[in-house]
Design a protein that fits this description.
Chain lengths: 337, 301
């Protein structure tokens, strides 16, 4: 098992290295001079300019710049934003809990609705519920979520006035220092009555928007996986033993039907992070997705570079964890490679 | 007598040709046929946009800005789906938008299929270091979330329609490479390939004439679904201001333009998104039908 784990981990190393190389090269190919961004429109004396270039290491040969870059990364230095002068790593991890909170809520929403819906559709195969759900699922994963978000804001927030339009909490009435960065937890801890509800209220729409595509995928996957399992012999045996249908479906069948669903949930991590970029932009949700888009607008390349590197590293690590977990659950995979 | 009996026998049923068999299987799926019909209509409108649409997509009717659709209060039948903030006819812009979105979808699909087939076949045939390098690069692309990668590519190359196509094609490349490589590896061990080899067939011919046709079914299915993904991704880039630039009537950037009217003029926001959704649903329904018809192994029960 240890050997399998090490082998899988070692396989990701070239990917990490290539990732560093690609972000390094890509950012240098970007049109526009980062030094000019920092100095502004008016221009400065050539001496100051040279000094800036030297500070940013831009007067070094390119291979030296890359070596320095890798060296810094290995020491946990992901660069400094040229706009805010903050460390990229600090900025990223200050905003990341917001993204994580939103993504986790979206995934929870998708699983809690998608799995039961898929199971019912499979059991009542061919019923109106099945047809409606499958139609909804196709619509769901075809959904342009940026439009879906605007549509929900238009209806739920503007017309019906049920939810706030943007942000994570009502800042006029509630203010407290972030402790964990997770608004729901911080709000609970703050002992301000109503703060938790305000945070939850703000979370609902973004959660639905980000959770829609995974919901559709999970519902479809659960349904087809359940249909397959329901025709297996052990399910027939369980039925023949006289077990209640609820127990047959909920216990014997579902446990096996969920295996591919778990894989799909893992594969949605990248989708969630990409979707977070759009969702956060629409709802002004202060997470890393919105920050990344703003970094492009401000030509803050160190932030863009560091952000993409961090997000991708996270995806690689999560996929590695899922791989290893899956190998632990299913010995066939562990020994197959 | 015997001759008569033979003649009287009903004619043997002729096995249906591959196209007929495909159509018979495809048309069983009502959703797929519906998707195909809608898609054909959208495609025809896109192709004949110059003839079908009432105005030019850039023509501004300054006296008729932000009109609602004709059936709403204050609507005008001269502008069936209303006008935008600059007084441009929404219907016209949606029709031209279909042209752009479908073009992006098909261009992305064609690019990534062609490059994907070449790389996938190269990886499976040459093996060794070539295989390793190609597959590691694909792993790298897969490790960056799709939209984030597209954003990086566009940030480097600059926002434009062409760069959108390049960016999205890169994002979807790995799925084709993996698919082609896996099915080619599966075919390589089969007897008919060995037979061809023994018969002295060259590598090129083996790759493209012997093996590739046998990998086509999953590839076609993937390509159909790839078109819809590409349309969504390109629209998302347009929405973020990183895709096609105004005044191009691209659906995503039309949505971005309309964001400020979310309170006052909801239909300016509603229509472009609806166009994206309908197109993508149509393609996905058709893709499901294609999969069921071409690739019975993958059939959803």
């Amino acid at each position: 098992m240890i050997k399998f784990l090490l082998k899988r981990a070692a396989l990701t190393l070239p990917t990490f290295f290539a990732l560093m190389f690609v972000t390094f090269v890509a950012i240098r190919m970007v049109p526009g001079d980062p030094v000019e961004v920092r100095t502004g429109e008016r221009g400065i004396s050539p001496e100051r300019l040279a000094q800036f270039r030297h500070e940013l290491g831009l007067d070094q040969p390119i291979w030296k710049q890359f070596a320095d870059y890798v060296w810094q990364l290995l020491h946990g230095d992901f660069g400094t934003s040229v706009v805010t002068n903050e460390k990229v790593l600090t900025e990223f991890f200050a905003l990341f809990p917001a993204t994580l909170e939103l993504s986790a809520a979206a995934m929870l929403f998708a699983v809690l609705l998608g799995v039961p819906a898929g199971v019912i559709a499979a059991v009542k195969r061919g019923s109106w519920f099945d047809h409606t759900l499958m139609g909804a699922a196709v619509t769901g994963f075809s959904m342009p979520i940026f439009w879906w978000g605007l549509l929900l804001i238009m209806l739920v927030s503007e017309r019906w006035g049920l939810t706030p339009v943007s942000g994570r909490i009502d800042l006029i009435n509630y203010y407290f220092e972030p402790v964990t960065g997770f608004m729901l937890i911080d709000a609970l801890k703050s002992d301000q009555p109503g703060a938790f509800w305000s945070a939850l209220h703000h979370l609902i729409l973004p959660m639905i928007v980000l959770g829609t595509v995974p919901l559709a995928v999970i519902a479809r996957m659960t349904r087809s996986s359940m249909l397959e399992v329901l025709s297996e012999d052990y399910v027939r045996t369980a039925k023949a033993k006289g077990l209640s249908p609820f127990r047959v479906i909920g216990y014997h069948a579902l446990r096996n039907a969920l295996i591919p669903v778990v894989t799909i949930v893992g594969l949605q991590v990248g989708t969630l992070l990409a979707g977070a970029v759009l969702t956060e932009t629409i709802f002004s949700w202060p997470g890393v997705g919105k920050w990344l888009i703003e970094a492009i607008g401000r030509r803050d390349y160190p932030a863009l570079q560091g952000g993409i590197l961090l997000i991708s590293s996270m995806v690689i690590v999560v996929n590695l964890i899922i791989d290893v977990l899956y190998g632990a659950i299913n010995p066939r995979i562990r020994h197959g490679r | 007598m015997a001759v008569d009996a033979l003649a009287a026998q009903p004619a043997q049923p002729v096995p249906p040709g591959p196209l007929r068999a495909f159509w018979a299987s495809f048309s069983e799926n009502k959703g797929a046929v519906g998707g195909l019909v809608v898609l054909v209509i959208i495609a025809l409108m896109a192709i004949f946009a110059d003839v079908v649409s009432p105005y030019s997509p850039f023509e501004q009717f300054r006296d008729f800005t932000k009109l609602p659709p004709a059936w709403e209060d204050g609507g005008n039948w001269k502008f069936v789906l209303g006008t935008d903030a600059l007084g441009r006819d929404t219907l016209t812009r949606l029709i031209y938008g279909a042209r752009i979105s479908l073009f992006i979808g098909v261009a992305v699909m064609a690019t990534s299929v062609i490059v994907g087939v070449l790389l996938g076949l190269a990886a499976s045939f040459l093996g060794g270091i070539v295989d390793t390098v190609i597959m590691r690069v694909m792993d790298l692309i897969l490790s960056v979330p799709g939209l984030v990668l597209a954003i990086l590519v566009v940030a480097v190359l600059g926002p434009s329609l062409t760069n959108t196509i390049v960016a999205v094609a890169i994002v979807y490349l790995p799925s084709y490479v993996r698919l082609v490589r896996a099915s080619a590896l599966g075919e390589l061990g089969k007897d008919y390939v060995t037979a061809s080899r023994v018969a002295g067939v060259g590598t090129m011919r083996l790759m493209f004439v012997t093996i590739l046709p046998n990998c086509l079914a999953p590839l076609i299915v993937q390509a159909a679904l790839g078109v819809s993904n590409a349309i969504l991704e390109a629209a998302a880039l347009g929405f973020l201001g990183l895709g096609a630039q105004p005044p191009t009537p691209e659906w995503g950037s039309m949505l971005a333009d309309s964001r400020e009217f979310i309170r006052s003029n909801p239909w300016i926001v509603t229509l472009p998104g609806l166009a994206i959704l309908v197109t993508v649903v149509a393609i996905n329904l058709m893709g499901d039908g294609l999969r069921d018809a071409l690739d019975p192994k993958l059939k959803r029960s």
